[in-house]
Design brief:
By secondary structure, the protein is mainly α. Helix content is 73%, strand content 0%.
Length: 128
């Protein structure tokens, strides 16, 4: 039973995050999920015997295994979240760089003659 629950929870987290990552509701959901995760972990530390009862009801032998499964799910969610956030940030940077490059582009007609900008030679009579 725990395997099915873990797989469904993992799939639901990934689908929820990928479908709603830019919405304020999703961001609030992530924060609420984090708070619930922390509350669950604190409860697991304070009442380990209750956690074992919950684990047994889910088909896991020990409460520590249940905590481990929860940590693996949390880590997977953070990994996917970080990957998507970095990918979006890279896209924003490339769009910004492209916009700046287009704004500062020089037309071929407007180019400055590089030969005219050379410094005079040391033996140039006009230099003295």
């Amino acid at each position: 039973m725990i395997k099915v629950l873990l797989l469904l929870a993992g799939a639901a987290l990934v689908l929820f995050f990928l479908a709603n990552r830019r919405k304020a509701r999703a961001k609030a959901g992530v924060k609420i999920g984090f708070v619930l995760f922390v509350v669950f972990m604190v409860y697991a530390v304070i009442r380990p015997d209750d956690l074992t009862v919950i684990a047994n009801a889910l088909g896991v032998q020990r409460g520590t295994d249940l905590v481990l499964y929860a940590l693996v799910m949390g880590f997977a969610f953070v990994t996917v979240s970080t990957y998507v956030r970095f990918r979006e940030q890279e896209l924003r940077y490339s769009r910004l760089a492209r916009t700046i490059a287009l704004q500062n582009a020089v037309r071929p007609d407007d180019r400055v003659d590089v030969r005219a900008m050379k410094p005079p030679a040391d033996d140039d009579p006009m230099r003295s």
